[in-house]
Write a structure and sequence with these properties.
- The structure is a single chain.
- The chain is built from 2 helices and 8 strands; from the N terminus they run H-E-E-H-E-E-E-E-E-E.
């Protein structure tokens, strides 16, 4: 049995790639995130399903020439969403900028507050698990 067959049908694999910004005028397919999470009918993160399957809600941060960082998608008090790579709490979360309002559809743009700054990413794929 595969992981996908154990999860609700609302789970998706979402790929984000760096959008155009200073230093990356064409964006970058080598810098981004892969998120495994449930989406609701409006293509937003589904907090209720996340709560029931939080261990399956994962994120991979990838950067060309670096090892991938693997973490969890977390729903924080107040309704915001973040990526947590260090379960011990030594490393700060990367916060999704208004992820609770964002639609994860191909072509949409979302922002992530990283250690150095807030960066914008484009949703390049959304696939069933």
């Amino acid at each position: 049995m595969t992981l996908g067959s154990q999860l609700p049908r609302s789970f998706r694999k979402i790929r984000l790639e760096l959008a155009r910004e200073k230093g990356h005028p064409a964006g970058s397919a080598g810098r981004g995130y892969i998120i495994v999470a449930p989406l609701d009918a409006e293509r937003r993160f589904d907090a209720k399903t996340w709560k029931e399957h939080r261990d399956a809600c994962r994120v991979v941060r990838f950067r060309s020439g670096e090892d991938d960082d693997i973490g969890h998608l977390v729903h924080r008090p107040g309704g915001s969403w973040a990526f947590r790579y260090d379960i011990r709490g030594d490393e700060d979360d990367e916060a999704g900028y208004h992820f609770e309002q964002e639609r994860f559809e191909i072509g949409e743009y979302v922002s992530v507050r990283e250690a150095d700054a807030t960066h914008t990413y484009r949703v390049v794929s959304v696939e069933p698990i």
